[in-house]
Design a protein that fits this description.
The complex is a heterodimer of chains A (about 260) and B (about 210). Helix content of chain A is about 45%, strand content about 15%. Chain A has about 260 residues and is an alpha/beta fold. Chain A has 2 domains: about 80 residues; about 140 residues, Dihydropteroate synthase-like (TIM Barrel, Alpha-Beta Barrel), CATH 3.20.20.20. Chain A has an 8-stranded parallel β-barrel with strand order 1-2-3-4-5-6-7-8, surrounded by 6 helices. In chain A, α4 packs parallel to α5, α8 packs parallel to α9 and α9 packs antiparallel against α10. Chain A starts with a strand and ends with a helix. The mean pLDDT of chain A is about 95. The model of chain B has no long low-confidence stretch (mean pLDDT about 95). In chain B, α3 packs across α9 and α5 packs across α9. By secondary structure, chain B is of the alpha/beta class. The longest helix of chain B is centred in the middle third of the chain and has 25 residues. Classes of the chains: A alpha/beta (about 260), B alpha/beta (about 210).
C-alpha cells in the first residue's frame, strides 16, 4: 500500500500557524513522524496562502527534505505552485493533481514529463464532476492514453476516483468501488489512490465509515491512500487488510507489526 | 380543525407521502394556503434546520425533510400563486468559478427554501459575469457564494469587485461560506456575512431581510 501522509496542509490551523511563524522545527517533526509511521510520500499543501503559495511551498519542500528520505507530494491545482515545489524538490516527486480538463492537463502534463514525477490523476474532465463509475472510467481511459503517449510510465499514474459523500446518495460508495475495480483490471500497472474522509461527510462517527471504506476499497484493488498515518487504528486496519488480501507474503508485514 | 403539528412532524421526520397526504387534507379542509406553508411546512423545516445546526440531525435527515417539503409544495403551489404569497426574500446562490463542489451549496439552498426564501441556484463553476447578471436580473436580497478550494476562494473577491464595477454592490448583501472560508477572509474581501454552516446562514439571512 502506498501511503501519502496528509498532515502538512495549510488549511489545518497548526500547520498554518507554523508556516506563518516560520517554525520549521514543528513542520519537520510532523514530516518525520509521518515517515516513521509508514508514509511513502509526505503531502505538502500551501493553498491557503493564495498569492504566497509558491514561496511557501518552496520553503516547505526545502525544509522537509532535510529530515525525511521519502519523496514529497506537491499538492496544488495551481501550476506555478506545482512548478515551484518541483524545482525545489530533490528526487522523484509526486504531483497532486492533474485532471482530464483541457486547460489543466495542458499546464500540468509538461511538469510530469519534465520532472519525471508521479502524478495523481483525478477522474474528472471538462464535463464536470463524475456521477457514475462509467463517467470515471471514461476519463481514466482517456487520461491513460494521453499520459502514456507523452511517455509517462503507467506506474507513475495514480488515479483518484473522486469520492463523494454517501449521505447525499447511498450509491456513491459503490460507484467508487466499481471504478477502482475497473481501472485496476483494465489498466494493469497504474495505481489507484484516494482520500477517505469525503465518503463520510454529513454523517455521525465519520472515522468508522472511513475505516470500513478503506477496507472495502483495498479489497476492490485500491493500492494507494491519502490519509493520516499517525492514526494508529487506520494503519492497523491497513496492515490487517494487506494480510487478508494477498498483499503480504507469508503475512510477514502483519507479524512484524503485531507479533 | 386541521392539525398543523402533525404536518410539521411529517416534515421533521422526512415522511414525504404523509406530508403530501396531510397537505392535501389541509387544502380540502380549506385552510389558508399561507398557514399551510408557514405553520406546517416552513415551521417543520425550521425545526430541521435547528436540529442540523445542533448536531442532532445529519445530512440524510435534512435531505429527506427537504424532499418531503418539496413534494408538499408542489400541491400547494397553485394556491400560493393565486393567493399572491411572497417569499420572505430572494437568494441567488452559486459555487464560484474553478470549483465544482455542490454538496454544501445544495444544502444551503434546501435550508433557505425550507425557510421560505425564493432560491435561484446558479449551480457550480459560476463566473463573476454570471453572478453579476443574476443579481441584475433577479434583484435578490442576498447573494451567496460557496468555495471549497483555496484556489477558487479568491474568486469571491473578483465577484465582489465585478458587482462594484456594475454599480450593484450596494443593492445586495453578500454571504460567503465553504470549508476554507473564515470570518477573517470574509472581512478581507468585503463580504457582509460568513456562516460556518447552513443553519446559521439561514438565521443570519432572516435577520437581514427583516
Amino acid at each position: 500500500m502506498i501511503i501519502v501522509g496528509e498532515l502538512i496542509n495549510s488549511t489545518r490551523k497548526e500547520i498554518f500557524n507554523a508556516i506563518e511563524n516560520k517554525n520549521s522545527d514543528f513542520i519537520k517533526e510532523i514530516a518525520k513522524k509521518q515517515e516513521q509511521a509508514g508514509a511513502s510520500f509526505i503531502d505538502v499543501n500551501a493553498g491557503i496562502f493564495l498569492e504566497r503559495e509558491e514561496e511557501v511551498i518552496e520553503w516547505l519542500v526545502t525544509e522537509i527534505q532535510q529530515v525525511v528520505s521519502v519523496p514529497l507530494c506537491i499538492d496544488s491545482p495551481n501550476p506555478q505552485a506545482i512548478e515551484a515545489g518541483l524545482r525545489a524538490h530533490k528526487g522523484k516527486a509526486m504531483i497532486n493533481s492533474i485532471t482530464g480538463e483541457k486547460a489543466r492537463f495542458e499546464k500540468i502534463a509538461p511538469f510530469v514529463t519534465q520532472y519525471g514525477a508521479s502524478v495523481v490523476a483525478l477522474c474528472m474532465d471538462d464535463k464536470g464532476m463524475p456521477e457514475t463509475s462509467d463517467d470515471r472510467l471514461r476519463v481514466a481511459d482517456d487520461l491513460v492514453n494521453r499520459l502514456t503517449e507523452l511517455g509517462v510510465p503507467k506506474e507513475n499514474i495514480f488515479f483518484d476516483p473522486l469520492v463523494k459523500p454517501v449521505s447525499v446518495n447511498s450509491l456513491y460508495g459503490n460507484e467508487v468501488l466499481e471504478t477502482i475495480r475497473g481501472i485496476m483490471t483494465k489498466h494493469v500497472g497504474v495505481h489507484t489512490i484516494c482520500g477517505l474522509s469525503n465518503v463520510s461527510f454529513g454523517l455521525p462517527n465519520r472515522k468508522l465509515l472511513n475505516q470500513a471504506f478503506l477496507v472495502m476499497a483495498m479489497a476492490a484493488g485500491l493500492d494507494g491512500a491519502i490519509l493520516n498515518p499517525l492514526d494508529e487504528r487506520i494503519m492497523e486496519l491497513l496492515k490487517a487488510t494487506e494480510a487478508l488480501n494477498g498483499r503480504d507474503e507469508y503475512c510477514l508485514g502483519y507479524v512484524e507489526t503485531f507479533g | 380543525m386541521f392539525d398543523f403539528g402533525e404536518l410539521q412532524q411529517a416534515i421533521i421526520l422526512g415522511k414525504g407521502p404523509l406530508a403530501t397526504e396531510l397537505t392535501q387534507k389541509a387544502i380540502n379542509e380549506e385552510c389558508v394556503p399561507k398557514d399551510i406553508l408557514n405553520q406546517g411546512l416552513i415551521a417543520g423545516m425550521d425545526v430541521v434546520g435547528v436540529k442540523f445546526k445542533n448536531g442532532e440531525y445529519y445530512l440524510p435527515q435534512v435531505l429527506l425533510a427537504a424532499r418531503a417539503m418539496k413534494a408538499a409544495v408542489v400541491l400547494l403551489h397553485p394556491l400560493i400563486v393565486s393567493a399572491g404569497i411572497q417569499p420572505i426574500g430572494t437568494l441567488v446562490l452559486g459555487t464560484v468559478k474553478g470549483d465544482l463542489h455542490d454538496v454544501g451549496k445544495n444544502l444551503v439552498a434546501m435550508l433557505f427554501q425550507g425557510a421560505g426564501f425564493n432560491v435561484i441556484d446558479l449551480g457550480v463553476d459560476v463566473s463573476s459575469e454570471k453572478f453579476v447578471e443574476a443579481v441584475r436580473e433577479n434583484k435578490p436580497d442576498i447573494l451567496g457564494m460557496s468555495s471549497l478550494l483555496t484556489t477558487s476562494m479568491r474568486e469571491m473577491q473578483d465577484v465582489i469587485q465585478a458587482l462594484q464595477e456594475a454599480g450593484l454592490r450596494d443593492k445586495v448583501k453578500i454571504m460567503v461560506g465553504g470549508a476554507p472560508i473564515t470570518q477573517q477572509f470574509a472581512d478581507k474581501i468585503g463580504a457582509d456575512a460568513y456562516a460556518l454552516e447552513g443553519g446559521t446562514a439561514v438565521e443570519m439571512a432572516k435577520a437581514m431581510v427583516n
